[in-house]
Amino acid sequence: MPLSVNDVYIEIRRTLKQADVSMPELEARELTAHVCGADKKRPADWAYRFLDDDTVARARALADRRIAGEPLAYLIGEWDFFGLTFRVTPDVLIPRSDTERLCELAVSRAQEIVNPRVLDLCSGSGCIGIALAHAVPDAHVVAADLSEAAIAVARDNARRLGVSARYICLAADALADPPERLRGFHIMVCNPPYITGPEMGELDRSVADFEPHLALYGGADGLDFYRSVARRWMGVMLPGGTLYFECGWKQAAAVADLFAQEGFSDIRIEEDYAGVQRIVIVRLPY
Question: Within this chain, do residues 198 and 128 fall inside the same structural domain, yes or no?
């Protein structure tokens, strides 16, 4: 007897729950909708749509991969961030809600500037810079990342989300001097690698085994990228420019102190939506 979309959803939900996967209802719904081509906003229709055996087999295979630790976002190839859906691959970190508050703060600042120029350093999937460009119609964003594969993902996301005319990608190493042509930015957003050496050995398996280590490891103390930006990259900013950094949940004070030691005084720390001090903001003098 053919199985309906709802039958497959119930089966996958039960399988994920038995495997102690977090939020089995949410993950089962996402997996089922993706494989079956079903509208996840209309689950009431799922009981009346029946599936062929190949589709059921693909759904079960994805559920098995999820139980083995592969992140849901990589299985379905997309993830939501700041109200937008981004394509993701194992070449980029999965966008996280922890970062949405940083994006909100940067958007608010960009809205105060006419034709703001924004640098998204360590851009990964492009989620921060693209979300900002989407929210601020006159913003122009340059996304810089060391990974050519990540740049390809960001460029595709910009095209899919309709901002490619105001979004440029280029290869650059945040641990080296910036390219000469990078100048004149009002805003920098930066979510760099910041996992420490000891923390790399303690990562959840779904992160350690599947997400790119190039985008995770920030040096022995996790601060290598902040040091480099403070010492090498401040010249890309205009006078009065503002920089927004994400950092680890115990790093905000250390990052703020690092910029203070480099002579910057207008520094503040903000909390993310969970109340964690994760955002460091540096304002340059005029």
Answer: yes
Say how far apart CA 246 and CA 106 lie, in whole Å. 12
CA distance 194 to 175: 13
**Closest by CA position to 56, among listed 93, 95, 7, 100:** 7
Q: ∠ CA(140), CA(107), CA(165), 5° rounding?
A: 25
Burial 127-155 (b: 16+ CB within 10 A, else e): bbbbbbbbbbeebbbbbbbbbeebbebbb
**Residue 186 belongs to domain with CATH number:** 3.40.50.150
Looking at the fold, whether 143 and 240 belong to one and the same domain comes out as yes
Residue 222 CA to its chain's centroid (Å)? 18
pLDDT per residue over 205-240, tens digit each? 899 999 999 999 999 999 999 999 999 999 999 999
> How many domains in the chain?
2
Contact 141, 153 (CB under 8 A): no
Whole-prediction pTM: 0.95
| Residues of the domain holding 194 | 91-283
What single DSSP character describes residue 122?
Answer: S
Same-domain pairing of 117 and 40? no
Q: In angstroms, what is the C-alpha Rg of the chain? A: 21
Distances (CA, A) of 158 to 10, 79, 129: 35, 14, 9
Confirm if 120 and 128 have CB atoms less than 8 A apart.
Answer: yes
Distance CA 84, CA 106 (A): 16
pLDDT, tens digit (0-9, with 9 covering 90-100), for 119-159: 999 999 999 999 999 999 999 999 999 999 999 999 999 99
CA 123, CA 145: separation in Å to the nearest integer? Answer: 6
Q: Check if the beta carbon of residue 102 is closer than 8 Å to that of residue 189.
A: yes
